[in-house]
């Protein structure tokens, strides 16, 4: 404060300074800065304007349940201290007489008298008007040693040297009608305050209250703008999402930190199924916020954010209520994205199934016509070749050629028969059959081939009785096809295990080999008709499709599992009674 010129001139200068500092306080608030930054800048302005050595500011938090205290000093050096959740002492009602305030004996402790004085003013616990109390309820004195009955009017501010207090002004103000506050100005000089000057400080304190409320509104507005901008950017990413799911999640997770209060110390992570996208190490987070991603009642993942360090700004909770709504909204956007992608995948799958069904229907119609057109000439070729072989005197080369003709005709007829079976032109004829007998008969038929291939057979047959209603011929074909595939997968030899088991109302047969296995790239296509990795001499690609047709026509399920180089296992479950419940699953090898 300047102390020159006449009282009226000095008053005019103070009025100009008051207007200037009020504008600057309001300007700081209009920037919407964080609470700590705002208090630090405003403290410098108030200390410069008042020429005081220290100040304290105590006000209720927004929740109204507790208070915080802010202290600032400029001598012997500039220091600031923020105390969240400050436990204010119980205000004792004092009634000053001739300006003297008598505080309880406990107030002889350093600084406690100041806390009690602030609490009394904050809670309106002051007595009638005296020269130390203004009509607005402020307490002030220019001679603390005589006006406060204490051993010594000394206070210790946080992290600052003890201050011998001579001049004090404790001024109440309102942040909002429901949130009161108190500004305490402290100086080591006598008679720094006067009634006229205190009017300026009281007006400035009210301006401070308005600025604090405006800062909260501006800060909240900026946070809402950040949140809405984030949601808008996420909507744009999802609208133009043409790449992979992982790429889209990466784009979304990079947008998240900017929407929270302190993006420089925040990490974000999105997890969907087996995919994960993150901006940092979530394990480092001190505080976390999470929202689940649930699609059709199934938990598919989560959206998480977390702060990797603690901050004094977390006075009213780490995350704002609006941020809780925000992360829930983001989780919903991710949920809708995953749901749309699932629908797209399902649509493509259904379209492929429709195309496959149409192709199979065409093959079925073709097979029905082929049977009559091919079987008749095949029968003639086979019959005449067999007759020619019976003539005596047929040269050996000719006999060998005739044998090749017979074998080729039999192979062609078998191919037509498999095609007819696949086309379901021959409905199953169900009788009561014993599964173990079917297994033994099939292995006997393959005995010579197993021996030539160096394959050892391991039988693990349930002797409790595996009887079911089925077509015996088709079960023979099912087992033979699976065993033939297993033999072909073990060219240097190996072990073929055939297992039967009774399970409640069904029987189970397992065919397992130690061969080369099935590559994951083709595992989804092995039941497709005519799909094969074998040469034309080894197979037609109908074996497993016929197996699948037989299983589904019997109302059973077929599961398979395979590891490249680790063998393949087919597990077939058939109901003991005649039902229709086709299915296809995958199992571990």
Explain the overall architecture.
- This protein is an alpha+beta fold and 589 residues long.
- The chain has three domains: 212 residues, GAF domain (Beta-Lactamase); 120 residues, GAF domain (Beta-Lactamase), CATH 3.30.450; 159 residues, Heat Shock Protein 90 (2-Layer Sandwich), CATH 3.30.565.
- A hairpin with a 2-residue loop joins strand 11 and strand 12.
- Helix 1 packs antiparallel against helix 2 and helix 9 packs across helix 11.
- The chain is rod-shaped and about 145 Å long.
- The N terminus and C terminus are likely disordered.
Task: List key phrases describing it.
about 45% helix, Heat Shock Protein 90, 6-stranded antiparallel β-sheet, Beta-Lactamase, alpha+beta, about 20% strand, 6-stranded mixed β-sheet, about 600 residues, rod-shaped, disordered C terminus
Assembly state:
single chain
Strand order of the largest sheet: 3-2-1-8-7-4
Main sheet makeup:
6 strands, antiparallel
Per CATH, the architecture of the largest domain is 2-Layer Sandwich
The structural domain count equals 3
Ranges with pLDDT <50 over ≥5 residues?
1-13, 103-110, 580-589
Distance between the termini: 88 Å
Radius of gyration over all CA atoms, rounded: 45 Å
Q: Provide mean pLDDT, rounded.
A: 79
CATH superfamily of the largest domain: GAF domain
Q: Determine the number of helices (DSSP H or I, runs of at least 4 residues).
A: 12
Q: Estimate percent helicity.
A: 40-55%
Outline, from the CA principal axes?
A: rod-shaped
Structural class: alpha+beta
CATH topology of the largest domain: Beta-Lactamase
* Percentage of β-strand residues: 15-25%
